[in-house]
Write a structure and sequence with these properties.
Helices cover about 30% and strands about 35% of the residues. With about 200 residues, the protein is an alpha+beta fold.
């Protein structure tokens, strides 16, 4: 038996590719918001992803099936463009759990890809999240409550004009990525297991 008796599990998720321009813009957004909320620990912009499905720890055969499902959906989809929309938060004003940037994709292609991906994953025996899909990019995860001053600052940011923090640029999505997540002492490290071209472009 020995070391081979324990299966190695790969923490796997499926995400929209993030390009360098978008990550630079998110860096700028985080810098602006961090000026108002300096006590919050922000996510490293290079690790931000628009997650379409989180699958948890998988054995190699399951990873292969997840890649197969993602490739099939990517081939059926058409490339699309999206833009950043507005700042938001999950949780109560005093205890927000997550601060996020919304994603706007008017054609409905992103929602359609998410629905097709869930259908394919279910066929392959995976569990999927049945909650309504709300595309967003996580900027911060909060571990403790905010002070009254921080609450006011956050509410002021959330009440601002929808596009005041979001650049006007749009980004074209070319790939769906099957990602591996590793937990390290320094934080999470992500690597791409398979990049699946959308529409076989």
């Amino acid at each position: 038996m020995g070391a081979h008796s324990r299966l190695e599990l790969t923490r796997t998720f499926i995400a929209l590719e993030m390009n360098d321009t978008l990550q630079r813009h998110l860096t700028g957004v985080i810098r602006q918001v961090a000026l108002a909320l300096p006590g919050i620990r922000w996510v490293d912009p290079s690790s931000i992803h628009l997650t379409l499905a989180f699958l948890g720890g998988l054995i190699d055969e399951q990873v292969a099936e997840a890649i197969q499902a993602t490739e099939m959906v990517a081939q059926q989809a058409l490339p699309f463009s999206y833009r950043l929309s507005h700042l938001g938060a999950f949780g109560s004003p005093r205890y927000p759990r997550v601060i996020w940037m919304g994603v706007e994709e008017p054609s409905g292609s992103l929602v359609s890809i998410h629905r097709m991906l869930n259908q394919q994953l279910l066929r392959h025996g995976f569990e999927v999240d049945t909650r309504p899909f709300s595309p967003h990019l996580t900027l911060a995860r909060l571990k403790s409550s905010l002070s009254s001053q921080e609450q006011q600052q956050l509410q002021s940011l959330l009440a601002g004009k929808p596009h005041s923090l979001a650049p006007a640029d749009s980004y074209t999505a070319h790939h769906l990525d099957v990602m591996k997540s590793e937990r390290l002492r320094t934080g999470a490290r992500y690597s791409c297991l398979r990049s699946c071209p959308i529409g076989d472009n």
